Amino acid sequence: MTVESTAARSASTAPTRRSGTGGKGATKGTGQGAAKGAGKGAGKKAAPAEAAPAEPAGTGSPATTSRKAAKSSTRTTGTTTRGARGQARKPRRSGQGGPDAADGPQLVQLLTPEGERVQHPDYDVDLTPEQLRGLYRDMVLTRRFDAEATALQRQGELGLWASLLGQEAAQIGSGRALRPDDYVFPTYREHGVAWTRDVDPTLLLGMFRGVNNGGWDPNSNNFHLYTIVIGSQVLHATGYAMGVQKDGADSAVIAYFGDGASSQGDVAEAFTFAAVYNAPVVFFCQNNQWAISEPTERQSRVPIYQRAQGFGFPGVRVDGNDVLACLAVTRAAAERARSGEGPMLIEAFTYRMGAHTTSDDPTRYRSDEERAEWEAKDPIKRLRSYLEREKLADADYFAAIEGESDEMGVRVREAIRTMPDPDSMAIFENVYADGHALVDEERAQYAGYLASFADSSEEGR
């Protein structure tokens, strides 16, 4: 359709790096943002070129395109696609192609789902065997922690849990691309990024159990507290980045959010301010295909990364299940931000393998076939296949990681046993600085409600 072809043609208009800035994140005018030159790693297969798809012969000017589009058997009205008889069509389901299809030419990939290393013309990483094994370890331990936390919630030990299952590569890759002095603004699902910032995983458990006020000191790890208000942390990140800019600090800020949050006004406002003030912020959108039960097709008519161009800064889509690609793209974007070239949007195209949270049942709105399709792209299996193929890790190494994973499971369960039960009355604290009559009234009512259970217990004796 015209919408897609127009967006594809505009993909080559992203700003390029100014002469003389140097650095590894140089943009090459491909529309894919900051980049590190390819050419490393002899023997790697070349990935498809990232150029926008060619326009069919004879399309001519935009006016010609519009006339041809008008003759099409389909027409678009607002955000609803209508057929020849004007009946509204249902949006495509995730994994069925359309503007968000992950097999398009815009996807940055360095490691295929089969674990084969490929080259990209704009992005690359040069990692030692030890660093590659470290990425594998990060993902395995993060997944084990996530599985333990999910089980603990089912056992009544946590009030809620938001699983990251399937998104390990996006989080570990981007997290390991950052420097210690960079600052991170997460959502409530960035357990993998927290791991890369050396946040003790048991502190996350205390927060979801309701027994601590946030969990950790953000200044200790440059990792902000989790944010439950959808999209609000993106504004916070932009404001913080503007402060970094005024201080003249050599650091970048990164804001994590999801495809659902991309529909929030806060995110659009953050994009505007970041672009206008050239703030050193990286917007990292984990497009996991579902905003609870809403597919991405209900969120946007164009790929999310292309929205950046409307605000005046580059965007790039990366294979979110490829830890190497996520690391390379995020590292380039952060270097670009630090060098004074402003914001960049990264769309990590991945999949939420589990439920939105433990209160959600994804089987009600998505198919087993769709999940199976994404299981074949599992990020951990992908990196393991590469390590085995290149003989960078042996059976003893993988066994050792599994043993460490089991030890983490034990530590997590032991940590829960030492935590107190949450105080029911604590929900009334820290609402107003000086107290409020309405809160006092609600506190008294709730205290009476709790006391009624004790009275019933006494009467039953």
UniProtKB/TrEMBL annotation:
The keyword Cell cycle does not apply. It comes from the Bacteria. Residues 20-41 have a biased composition (Gly residues). Residues 1-106 are annotated as: Disordered. One of its GO terms (molecular function) is oxidoreductase activity, acting on the aldehyde or oxo group of donors, disulfide as acceptor. The keyword Oxidoreductase applies. Pfam families: E1_dh. Residues 1-19, 44-86 have a biased composition (Low complexity). Residues 137-407 form the Dehydrogenase E1 component domain. One of its GO terms (biological process) is branched-chain amino acid catabolic process. Keywords: Oxidoreductase, Pyruvate, Thiamine pyrophosphate. Its cofactor is thiamine diphosphate. NCBIfam families: PDH_E1_alph_x. This is Pyruvate dehydrogenase (Acetyl-transferring) E1 component subunit alpha. It comes from Streptomyces boncukensis. The gene is pdhA.
